[in-house]
Amino acid sequence: MAPQMSTEDGRTNALPDELERALRRATDRTLSALTSLRRAVRQHVRTERDRGATLPGIELDLRAIIARAQEGISNRDGADDGDGHHDGLTAQVVKWSEGFYKGD
After folding, report:
1. Cβ(85)–Cβ(98) below 8 Å
2. Paired strand residues for 16
3. What residue segments make up the domains of the chain, in order of their start?
4. Cα distances (Å, whole numbers) of residue 102 to 20, 42, 48
5. Count of other CB atoms within 10 angstroms of residue 92
6. Which of 45, 84, 85, 104 lies in disulfide reach of 99, CB 3.0 to 4.6 Å?
7. Distance CA 100, CA 25 (A)
8. Which residues contact 66 (CB under 8 A, 6 or more apart)?
């Protein structure tokens, strides 16, 4: 069954097929990118932990990496960080790092 969207009067309409396909592709790409990012964070945390780094030190490094990546995106697109994605991504990466550092 196709996803549905609500109208102003509370009725629902099926999303047009083209929109549904585009949404599915975007969702698939996003989930794939997040999975890749999570794996990379896990590898980085484990490598740094094995080298003797502390969790706060690793988190500081990860925050710096995300900030540099965000700067690159902002410089390329001319956008600022007003949408909060940077903060949300940073919070998620830090949460992952805590679990990976403890051996999860």
Report:
1. no
2. none
3. 44-104
4. 40, 11, 12
5. 15
6. 104
7. 29
8. 86, 89, 90, 93
Tokens read off for 29: 């790409």
* Residue with tokens 């549905």, as numbered in its chain: 4
Tell me how far apart the alpha carbons of residues 45 and 54 are, in angstroms, rounded to a whole number. Answer: 10
Residues near 102 by beta carbon (within 8 Å), at least 6 away in sequence: none
Say if residue 58 is exposed, middle or buried (CB neighbours under 10 Å; 0-12, 13-18, 19+): buried
- Are 13 and 7 in contact by the 8 Å Cβ rule? The answer is yes
Sequence-distant (6+) residues with CB within 8 A of 89 are 66
- Please write the tens of the pLDDT for every residue from 25-84: 999 999 999 999 999 999 999 999 999 999 999 999 999 999 998 887 777 666 555 556
**Nearest-angstrom CA–CA distance, 104 and 97:** 10
What is the value of pTM for the model shown? 0.71
